[in-house]
Automatic annotation (TrEMBL):
Low complexity bias (residue ranges): 148-158
Protein name: Phytocyanin domain-containing protein
Stored Gene3D superfamilies: Cupredoxins - blue copper proteins
Record-linked SUPFAM superfamilies: Cupredoxins
Transmembrane segments annotated in the record for this chain: 7-28, 166-187
PROSITE patterns the UniProt entry points to: COPPER_BLUE, PHYTOCYANIN
Positions of the UniProt region annotated as Disordered: 132-159
Upper lineage: Eukaryota, Viridiplantae, Streptophyta, Embryophyta, Tracheophyta
GO MF annotation list: electron transfer activity; metal ion binding
């Protein structure tokens, strides 16, 4: 019975780690340290180009709200820098926008001339389920306890891919442990 209890404890830890892994959502500071600006310091197209935005991620716009704002607009209005009929308007100077759907989001600054100067960003959001995950190699659970020693149970990494691989490896470990648990249960 002691072995069974031990396995139960490990399974419980794995489940906690899995939940932790799945709740990881990224937060992006738009323009990084430069923030949301019209000064030409940031090429927002380039900034967004190398990032994978997923449903549940958050954009943070930081700026002086005396000189800037954030307006979510249609693609048509984005292309023509038309801020007169926004979908959403933000103006606190530190706005968090959660990306709720897998679609294109378009943001621009509504102050005159700022969008034309490049203060605009297009964000392509893909479904959370399409996050790249390495395909784990499944091997038969010949030695149940071996699985536990090779799998980390916690993560302090903010890297999404690391978190994802942690999640999938935990999932594999969890599946195997559940299998082991079933086998052990039958043995008793
Ligand atoms: Cu502006």
């Amino acid at each position: 019975m002691a072995l069974l209890a031990k396995i139960n404890a490990v399974v419980f830890l794995m489940m906690i780690a899995s939940v932790f892994g799945v709740s990881m959502a990224a937060v992006y500071n738009v323009g990084d340290s430069a923030g949301w600006t019209s000064a030409g310091a940031v090429d927002y197209h380039k900034w967004a180009d190398h990032k994978d935005f997923h449903v549940g991620d958050t954009l943070v716009f930081k700026y002086n709200n005396q000189f800037h704002n954030v307006k979510q607009v249609s693609q048509k209005d984005f292309l023509s820098c038309d801020a007169t009929s926004p979908i959403n308007t933000y103006g606190t100077g530190s706005d968090s926008v959660t990306l709720k759907s897998a679609s294109h989001y378009h943001f621009l600054c509504g102050f005159p001339g700022h969008c034309q100067a490049g203060q605009k960003v297009e964000i392509l959001v893909t479904p959370a389920s399409l996050r790249p995950t390495p395909s784990p190699v499944l091997s038969p659970p010949s030695h149940c306890t071996d699985q536990t020693s090779t799998t980390p149970t916690t993560s302090t990494s903010t890297d999404k891919n690391a978190a994802n691989s942690l999640y999938s490896s935990n999932f594999v470990a969890f599946t195997m442990l559940a299998f082991c648990l079933a086998v052990t249960g039958f043995a008793f």
